[in-house]
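Thread: quick sanity check before group meeting

JM: Hey all, I'm pulling together slides for Thursday and realized we never actually wrote out the predicted structure for the chain we discussed last week. Dropping the sequence here so it's in one place. If anyone has concerns about the input, flag it before I start.
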Amino acid sequence: MARKIAVTRRKPGHAPAAKLGSGVIDVTVVLLEDGYASTAVGPIEVFHSAGMLWNWLHGETPEPRFRVRIASIDGRSVNSLCSMGVTPNCGIGDIKKADIIILPASGWNVQERIMRHTALLPWLRKWHARGAYIAGVCTGVAFLAESGLLDGRRATTHWGVAEIFRQRYPKVIWQTDRFLPEDGRLFCSGGVYASIDLSLYLVEKFCGHEIALQCAKSLLLSMPRSRQSGYSVAPLSHPHSDDKIRRSEEYLQENFAGGVSIDRLAERAGMGPRNFIRRFKAATGRLPGAYVQMLRVSAAKEMLERGANSVQTVCAKIGYEDVAFFRSLFKRHTGMTPAEYRERFAGMSFDRGDLAS
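JM (edit): ok, ran it. Output follows.
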């Protein structure tokens, strides 16, 4: 039997009572059956804390900036993906005022979730037409795409479902290296715990940097990130059945740090250079040069994750002589400089094989 947890708005500790002013922003967080509870509860707590927790910690009168309502489709409790029950304040049809709407992550079987929540789609279109800002978290972005609101607009989602969404919603301008794109009062975030980044971003947008920073400090959070590509462990190529190109990939994976010419690769594959380039791109989705760059960046990531002390050493080991070029290339692929990546990920090891060995 699922454990039931009623989500209610409570004062932090023994904070003095705070009155909601006329400028308070109305937020509706939508609960989805079998979704990630944290992507609903996290935003609820961030918005509730804005203007409240920092003030209380400093002995000042709390000044809440947001009024949060929690709604399910029909007003009934929902069970999260982990069988935790969450009780809303109301159903979506009971919402009379909404400045911001948050759609949490729905779980991974997105189309099945959409079929179970079809009433949500016209409701989203109605509130967007009324001027509401709507934000989708991770796979929750699919509801925005399914409603048609994202057609012709920039959007992101979790890197693990990006290709599926790209195929199903071709009218959307997918920018899956971006962490928090905004377009036409629509916001998207790239992963489950990006719901916190998204919430802080909206606090900053509506209340200013100082309030957002106070909220982040009081909750011991970092300010929002901008890109997710540094977090993804993406395959180097699409699955394919071209055995000759697969052998070329294996050769490159063993020899990427040295200079490997197209002529040499084509000769090994028994093809002419132009035919080899065409076949390689068709099979892997990348030109050979771009493929080698990805191999080198992947190897650099592994060395930096293991705490490599010198960026210059990493640069040399993966086959580059120009450190400035390597820094630029690395940032283009990950959204961070090598030093920033090492600071964030040193000590964390993703199992990607033995590229760095």
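AS: nice. The mean pLDDT is 82. The two ends are 49 Å apart (CA to CA).
JM: adding both to the slides.
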